[in-house]
Every structure is written in C-alpha cells, then in structure tokens.
Amino acid sequence: MSSTRTLIRGGLVITAADEIHADVLIEDGRIAALAAHGSDAAASWTAGRVIEAAGRYVIPGGVDAHTHMELPFGGTFSSDTFETGTRAAAWGGTTTIVDFAVQTVGHSLREGLDAWYAKADGNCAVDYGFHMILSDVHESSLKEMDRLVGEGITSFKLFMAYPGVFYSDDGQILRAMQRSASNGGLIMMHAENGIAIDVLVEQALAGGRTDPRHHGEVRKVLLEAEATHRAIQLARVAGAPLYVVHVSADEAVAEIAAARDKGLDVFGETCPQYLFLSTDNLAEPDFEGAKYVCSTPLRPREHQAALWRGLRTNDLQVVSTDHCPFCFSGQKELGRGDFSKIPNGLPGVENRMDLLHQAVLDGHITRRRWIEIACATPARMFGLYPKKGTIAPGADADVVIYDPGAEQVLSAETHHMNVDYSAYEGRRITGRVETVLSRGAVVIDQREYTGRAGHGQYVPRGTCQYLG
After folding, report:
1. Does the pLDDT of residue 4 top 90, yes or no?
2. CA quadruple 279, 284, 287, 291: dihedral positive or negative?
3. Does the predicted model carry a pTM greater than 0.70?
4. Quick one: which H or E segment has residue 221?
C-alpha cells in the first residue's frame, strides 16, 4: 500500500484557517490525513515517497480564477497556450486555473465553450475550469446559461467596456443578472464605462496623444468607479450577486465596500499588477510602457494603499492574475503610434504566489490571509472548495512545498511563461516554490519540471459558496 502514498514531513502547514507543524499523508491523489509532527500517529505512517519539508511551508496549490490562455484579442492571440500557461502556473505554485471561454457575437455559448474545451483538452499540466464570457445576450443565450450552470460552468463574465467587441448595454446586463439570480450563477463584471472611454480615446488620438501612458489617462478612475456603482445597482435590481473583476482604484473599492456594508452579495478581485505596478511603468520611455497596457489600467501609486486595505478588511476577497500575455516584439508593437491598438494584457500566472508572499514579508497581509486570497477564497467563490484551496482530509492533493527564505530575481530570462518580457523584471523577492504536487503527482520536483501536458483535468464547478 505504501508505494502509492506520499508523506510530506516536518513542514509548517498553512491554510486560510490554521498554521500547524504537521505531517501530511497523501493517498490516491488526495489528502488522507494530517497529524502533528512528532506525534505517534505521524510516526506510524509509511509511504513510498517521503518529502522532507523542515524549514518549509506546506501550502495548498494556488487557485488562479482569472486567466486568458490563447485568447483572441486586438487582431492577435495571447501568447500562452493552455500547455505553456499551465506549466508556468505550476512553476509558480498554482495548481488550478479558471480560464474564460468566449461566446462570439452571433454564435451560441455552446460553440464558444466547445472551442475552449478543445483548446485545453489533453494540453494542461494542472487542473482547470471555465467561466463563460457573454458577448451576445438574448433569449437563446439566456436559456443556455441555465444549461451551462448544470454542466459546472457556474460564472458568467460581462463587459461594460470594449464597445463593438465584448460590450453589453445595461439592458443586456440586467437580463443576464436576472437569469443568474434564478439559476445560481455568478455574474463577473468588467466595470469600466467603455462608451465614455471611447470618446476620450478618440480625443486623445486626435490631439496627438498616442503614447502608452495615455491608455491609463483616458481609462479614468471615475469611469471605473461609475461603472462599478452602476453594476452594483443593476445587481440589486435583479436580486443577483456580483463579482467585480480586476479592481484597480480607490474609488471603485469604496463602491464595493459601501455595497458590502449594506449586506449585499458584492465581491471584488484585484491583481498583482495593481498592487505592485503603477502609471510610472506605463510612462516608461521608448514605447516600453506598452508592456504594461492592460484594462483596467495601472493607476497612480497612491491607489495601492486602498487595495491593500481592501484585502485586509475583506472588501476585496480574491487576488487573481488576469494573465493575458502578449509579446512586446510583434504583438504589443501593433500599437506603436496608437495606444488604442496595443493588445491589453499582462503576464502574471507564474508570479502571483511569490509576489503575495513578498506582501506578507512587507507587512501588507498575514500568512493565512495570503493563502485565503490566493487559494481558499477563489476556490469557495467559484465552487471548488474543499476539493481545491485547502489542505484537509479528502481534498485533492494539490500541495506546494514553499521555501520562505529563498531569494530570487524575477526576470524573463528565468520565467516559464511564453512571453518575451517580465512585468516585474529585476524585482528581488524572498520566497520561492520548491516542489509542487497536483492531485498527488509531483509536477515540480526541487525546482525541476516533472509534469506533463494532459495531467491536468477539467473540473466542473459548483455554485458560489458565499451565497445564502
């Protein structure tokens, strides 16, 4: 029996709820038991593989609930495939991603979803699920939402931005929210006033303001706050829960906090780029700022304090990456001379767990909150808990052995994402992934990749676990 077992011995097990020096026994791809290190129970365990974790953290694999592999955008595709993107996720200690299947205008949800199943099937190094992007809300796509919830696609993303591409008007948004109120789905909202932003883009370009920094200047904080407010009111009218993606600004956090203070089911996500980068990056000379073009955009540095505070007070609950990489060479460069043509998105799936550990060392969050916002809450928010997001008997054995003292320098030279730059180039951080297990299989072994495309499985999701 012991040959199919793995024993992780002597580490500090950290979950959202506890920190305990414990040994972890894994059997048949699941956590079989935990026992205090040195206890009689732990001493009696035998296993075919023993991983010594003294001086290390033993944490749940990260759950990144917002990625875009192989996403068509701006006349090109995000540069990570499901194979390269999930391999990079594993290197960064993330063992589950939830990616976005896209409905194309004029086509059914089913067609979009099937296309994404086909992209991912047999190619993923770690487990994956899907959200559904609604680009065309009408009677037939609303009916399809019900069927998708039954199939384990329990969240739907709508855009108040990108007119002519993904944009939905308030009436379409209201209808989708009403539907989710009855079928148990969760609406995810890209909250920016895209109609007003397009006017400002046009005016900026007409005035010769074409550099990447103007991307941030036209996508104004007030237009994020206004859209966030409007999304919350529409959700109230529909009696539906709301999850606001990639919150970047103080005023948008305030809208979410005010809604939560009223007891509404409103949730907020932010991303490492808003916590660690700023408009200073967008203003880098020689078109370097294009590397940092994403939407919502990077904000002036003073917004970071509000985001960290929101994460501490639980007005923001989740940190995801919105990983959507485009190479600087040949992709970001499509927008030379016109910032509106720069593909929007940053690489980050490999950096999230490490950057958030650095935030622990910097005093922004506690160790348990690190695990909560990166593993447990995203798993609960999107119906994956306790299979994912924790270390407890019965959970999938998605486990990371983390060296909290190892120093590293983030760089495109050493990262595993399929993109030619790092958004965090040259940044020194402390803490590094050492060994990663996905459902009990070792996919990173002492900083060596031992995983394979096809190990990762599709995971159907339940509904949001924060709803009454």
Report:
1. no
2. negative
3. yes
4. helix 221-238
